[in-house]
Every structure is written in C-alpha cells, then in structure tokens.
Amino acid sequence: MAKTKILFLIALFVSCKIGTGKNLFDPNSPASLGLLLLGSEPVVTMEFSTNRVQPGGVMYVSTNHDFTTKTEGLKLPISGISDSPISKIIPRSKYLYEIRMKPSVTTGRFRINLKDYYLNESLQVNPESFEFEIDSEPPILELRTGNGIDISELESGFLDIVANEDIVWDGNLSQVGLSGTAKNTLVVSDVITSERNIRLLFAGNPNSNGGILTISFADIKDKASNSQGTLMLPINVYAFKSGPNLNVARRSCVGVELDDGRRLVLGGRAKKDVMINGNGTLSHAEFYDSVSKKFVQGPDMVYRRQEFDAVKLLDGRIFVSAGLGGKIGPSNDALTSTEVFDPISNTWTEGPQLADPRLFHKMTVLPNGDVLVVGGLSPYKPIQSVGSVELVHITNNPATMTVEPIGNLSDSRGKHTQILSHEAGKVIIFGGERSDVFGPLTNDFTPNALETIEIYDINTKTLSKSTAKLYKRFNHFVHRLKNGEILIFGGVNSRFDNAQPVLRAQIYNPITDTIRDHKNLLFGREWGSSFIFPYGKDQLIVAGGLEYRTVNGSTFDSIHDTESWSESNNRFYMTSRSLNARWDGCDIRYNSVGGGMILGGRIGDILGNTEEYSFE
C-alpha cells in the first residue's frame, strides 16, 4: 500500500506543471497537495510589508494560511519582552492582515519568533523569525564628501547625497530646489536615486566666489514613512576669492591662526627698496580682521626674520625661532634667537638661544608641550646644511625656558618636512636638502636632495635612521592620514639647472617603518605656499608653487591650477584655480571653520595681495 502511495505521488508531481516561485506556498497548489498526501502540513509563508514602522504606525503581512478560522486568529509573539509593541492585528482578508503598533512605544528593535509558536500547531513556517524596528526619526541626508566641496565639484556636473537609512522618494525635479549665495545660474538638470543615494546632475554656473548652496528636498520618507516635509541641506562651497592687501608686501613669511580666532602674519622679506627698522627683512606683524576684512598692524617681533619657523604652543602662545635677520640695523645675521607671542597681552618676549643658527629648519610641538627643532641651512657662504637637533623646554615664562641638545641627524638637512606620529610616539623627518661644502668660496658647496628618513623617539630622546627610502625630494608636503599613516608628496629632486619635480607620492607607515608608492600629482610643484588644509571629511587642497617644465630644469613657471587629494577616493584630481600663481608666500589655515588664506609671495616681484579659500 505504501509503495502504491509513493508511485501515485511521483506521477502527480510529474503530471503537474509546477513552476518556480510561489507554487510551493499556495495552499491549493499540487505541491502542497503532495505534502498533504505525504502526511505533512503545507509550509506557512509570511511576507511583511516593511521592517521599519512608526510609533502607532501600520505594517502588513501576507500569508498563504487562513488564520480567520482560528479562534485566536493570527498571533505574532515578540521574543524576550512581556510588553509587545503590537496593539492590534486586523484581518483584511483570509490572507492579508494589518498590524497596528502602540503609539506609546517610540523606539526599539523587536523579533517575532514564528517558528516556536507554530511548532505547537505542527506547522512549518517560512521565515522562522522576523525582525522589525520602531522608528520615529525622519531620514538624514548629507553630502558624501562632508559639509564642504570645492567649487569645481559643482562645475564638474554632479553631487552625491547619501541617506543614513533606506529612503522612499520619487526623485522628481519638482521635488528639488536650489538657493543660497553660491547658486548663481546653477540648476538641477536630472536626479538619479537608489535606496540610500541621490545623485544630482547640474547645469549652469555657480557663483565664482563660492558661498552657501542650500539644496531642498521635498517629501523624502524612510521605510517607516517618517518625513521632515521639506529637508534643507546647506553645503559650504569653497572657492578662491580676492582678499585684502597686506600693509607690507612680503615673501618668506609665516602665518598662523590664534586660538581666539585672530589671524596673524609674521616677518618675511619686503619688496625691493622697502626698509623697516633699517632693513628689508621684517619684524613687522599684521592681524587679519575677518569682520572688517582688513589687515591691521600688530606688535612687532623682537627680531627681524625671514626663512624662520613658528609654531603654536599647547597653551595658544606662538613660539618663533632662528632664521635670517637681526634687530634694528642694516645687516642680516644668522639667528639663534627665539621669542614668544602672548595673545592675551599682545606682547613678544625673547626666549632662550639655540646652540646653532639655522634657516629653512622645522619645529614640532611634542605632546608634553616642548618643541623639537630639527636641521636647517646655515646662512653663511658657502651654504652648509645643519645636522643638529635641539629640544626647547617650554615654560610659562620665556626667560626660564631652556634648550637641550639632542644630537645630530645622520644626514644634515634643511627644506625637509617632519610630522608627529602620536601612535608611534615619534617625530618622522622626511627628505630635505643636504649641502656639502668642499671649499672656502661662496659657491663651493654641492646641494643634494635626500632619500633618507630619520626618526626622533619622544620617550627615549634618541635619533635613528629609517630603513625606508623616499624618492629624493625637498620643499615637499606631508599629511597625516586618519589611520595614522603619512602621505608624502611634491617637492623637487635637485637644484639649479637639473631640477626636476617629483610627481610620485608615497605613504609611510610609522608603526612598521615601511613606505609604499602612491598616485602621481597632476603638477610637480615646490616652493609652494604650503597651502594644504582639510575640508569636509577627508580632503586636501594644494595651491601655488613652481613647476619645472624642461628636461634640464632651466625653465620653470608658477602654478595657477590647484589639485585636491581625497582619502576616500585615494587619488589626486584637478580642482579650482587660485587667483594668483604665486610661490614663496605663506598661508594661514582656518582650523576653526576650514579653508584659509594665501599671503604675499612672489610672481617676479614680491606681492602684497592675498586671497582667501573659503565659503564665507
């Protein structure tokens, strides 16, 4: 008898046209009939309309099982809690049920345990469980690159907007609007949507000065039907715009933003025939007033300085060291002096003397507040690079600050870069120019670009040489990445007639002491304004500098075009143009709001003009 039953079932399955899809779950299908004849109950399927629902909202479940014949109807037991968010289940037909939520439950994730419940009734259930969330918050939109973009990203034709959750939206042009100071003739020409991304395509032109672009989205909902109605997304559009003129045109200066928001430019070299304190090397300082958009004179430094360095201390004071210059008088000397600017009293106070004079050196503020002074070039002829490293112990009173000799680099160098690695507890010193003197005359020296990397250990106060090698370069840039690695790019590999730009970037890992090649710059540049700053989430922009254009390096030109590097895109790409193709200027980075200012420099003659890169 059993054998006959099996043969009958085989014949039944072969004779019936059972397609793919839902036939198995249809209670009247031959497959379910076959399961019934085999002594099994049909599989009960449930399909929920959403996994997110508002407080007091509704979701639906469709099924192949008629629960209206049961006394208790459809039951949906919630695992792990006594108070279910479900207030009522209403049958809309034999196979469709409305599930209403309690308005009092405003948040939470819940799991409906279907398997255990229906096992009591000897039913197979698909799925065995279902999770849903009570969601009272409307979706949030943001620019994929953060809250700021370069103006070139609008000119390129599209922006990507991302949502924090799946959205339900028609994406009609009538549902998108543009306003704000950056709009100009810009319009949205098309919209491409996916579950969590909106790509806006543009036509027309934004305001060349940048500004705020506000994008409005109407009727965007999430899967729980939450909506803000009209959602406004303001975006900071950065662009280069003309800034006020300096009171004194200068090159080889230093700029810094103070903790109180004031922006300060220091020292440098004045235009030809301009003499202040008896010399063209400046002690002159100026503040940029961002309200009046003018430069006002600040207190002079104690010393006239050019090719010096300045850092902001942990307490907000400014520490300045060395360079070429002096006090009042016509001569320029090699400086060992230091001084400190107190932004509260607006005064400069002389600090301790370094052991060695130096210019084109670098300083780094250490975690304990002390300042590491590394390398440089001596200003004496013939020019010789400096190998000594000194540590300045910072105190509240500059008169009590002291200088500790640390030792000598394996390769003396100036025009290098250095950066603090908090993860490794080290200052990493990259490349630079070493000048070897071979005779007594002015030009009796040989300049060499370095491939070496040296390391200062903060804890042991020792210097060591890395086994990793750079492409030889000086006057280059470094930037710390989010993962603690260091991006090195730009610079040149030599001086005089054989100078060539270094296009290849590299990434150094300070934990493993290894280096790897990265992408190429679009422009080889050195002597730039060192104008690199982050905006949005992960972006840098590089402006200004010189590019050598011939094989022997004898022809060069300053650069108008800027380029950006994105940590998420991991590449260099063209962005906007600066207003002036300048080099050997200085910059002030607006750490508080992003962007910054390029000041002075030269295009043939020394410049007094400035330009801001901002959205303000």
From TrEMBL:
Q: Give the top-rank taxon of the lineage listed in the UniProt record for this protein.
A: Bacteria
Query: Which Pfam families does the record cross-reference, listed alphabetically?
Result: Kelch_1
* Keyword field: Kelch repeat, Repeat
Q: PROSITE patterns this protein is in?
A: PROKAR_LIPOPROTEIN
The record ties this protein, via InterPro entries, to: Kelch-typ_b-propeller, Kelch_1
Spell out the protein name for this chain: Kelch-like protein
Which species is listed as the source?
Answer: Leptospira montravelensis
